[in-house]
Design a protein that fits this description.
Distance between the termini: 28 Å
Structural class: mainly alpha
Radius of gyration: 15 Å
Helix content: 40-55%
Number of strands: 2
Strand order of the largest sheet: 1-2
Mean pLDDT: 80
Shape: flat
Oligomer: single chain
């Protein structure tokens, strides 16, 4: 799972699919054997951010990736 600090988790496959949506392609995913040190679950918790600054990001993962300009960069390099 990949953390994105919104009190929820997202799988690596979900992240890849979302990134694929943003850049306009379908990721070609292959699975290999589990490796020593692989992280099975990770959870982002924005509680400290909220308590210190009084707010948390309300941007979805897809919106954030889109705002980074990844789609333009990937299409330009292709």
């Amino acid at each position: 799972m990949m953390p994105h600090a919104s009190f929820s988790s997202i799988s690596l496959l979900e992240l890849a699919a979302t990134l694929g949506d943003v850049v306009g392609t379908t990721p070609d995913i292959t699975h290999g054997p589990e490796r020593v040190g692989d992280i099975r679950t990770s959870f982002g918790n924005p509680s400290k951010l909220i308590s210190k600054f009084g707010f948390a990001a309300d941007t979805t993962l897809k919106e954030g990736l889109s705002q980074m300009g990844l789609a333009k960069k990937v299409r330009k390099e292709a």
